[in-house]
Amino acid sequence: MMAEKIPAQSLYVSEPSPYMFGNPSNKPDENWSNANWLKSRFHFAFAEYRDPSNTNFGVLRVMNDDLVQPSRGFGKHPHADMEIITYVVNGELTHKDSTGNEESLGRGSVQFMSAGTGLYHSESNESSDTPLRFIQMWITPSQRGLPVNYGSLCGDESARRNKWQHLVSSVKSKYKTPIKINQDANIQVTELESGQSITYAVGKDRQAYLLMIESTGAEIVQSGGEKQVLASHDALRLFGPTKIDIVAPESDKAHVLLVEMQKK
Question: pTM of the predicted model, to two decimals?
């Protein structure tokens, strides 16, 4: 099978206590429709979600799709020996860490940490009225004990409109991307306008994990003619060699994130 769909309804949904990350108790909020402060969709085993058969996809160890209530967040916590990439979908993500970095990033922005020898950081939604949604990915580094590194890129809708924006690549690769990580992996994003299409080819001995960030139903057409429809939160495992065309619906866009790596 060259492509395996992961339906949104099959993802584990986590809604942890607000006290776990230093938040006050849940309370009614006119800008928030959920009962809990956080709704996380886990693509792989994480935190209380235990599944030995679904711990990773190659070097992609974590993909969490987080929706955070206004004026809430993840208090200071540690990380080490992981390449952590965060893509902001909506709202504004505020990051602070123990090495002195502090900034807020909006839609389409990317925040990166090579956690290496270890650091503490916090992530929060400091808006009083706008929910925050972001996709956080953890990629296993090529080696342990690397120096801590931080970087970011401000979102530019024109850079991803109807084309691939190559955000992340390996420090050893030839690609000139704004973010470099210590692993043979690439992250790209596109935002297709209604009715537009784009092609992606997965090479021999490569694989990719595709997340449909936003769409009411985009069509994925494989090189053999097989078709699947992906809506928001659906994902697709791709195994090379294969090629796909992504076609946005006539009445909506298709916002897509893709993580490509060596086949494992």
Answer: 0.97
Task: Tell me the mean pLDDT in the region 181-196.
Answer: 98
3-class secondary structure, 158: helix
Strand partners, 179: 168
Residue 227 has pLDDT above 70, yes or no: yes
| Secondary structure class of 222 (helix, strand, coil) | strand
Q: Which residue has the tokens 């706008």?
A: 130
The pLDDT score that the predictor gives to residue 1 is 67
What number of other Cβ atoms are within 10 A of residue 226's Cβ? 12
Q: How far is CA 123 from the centre of its chain?
A: 15
Residue in 73, 17, 83 with CA at minimum distance from that of residue 47: 17
- Rounded to whole angstroms, the Cα distance separating 90 from 134 reads 7
Interstrand relation of 179-181 and 165-170 (parallel, antiparallel or unpaired): parallel
Q: Please count the other Cβ atoms lying within 10 Å of the Cβ belonging to residue 8.
A: 15
Handedness of CA 142, 144, 148, 152 (dihedral sign): positive
Q: For residue 48, give Cα distances in angstroms to 19, 42, 63, 69, 133.
A: 16, 10, 15, 21, 21
Cis amide leading into 52 (omega within 30) = no
Other beta carbons within 10 Å of 48: 9
First to last CA, the chain: 15
Per-residue pLDDT tens for 57-73?
A: 999 999 999 999 999 99
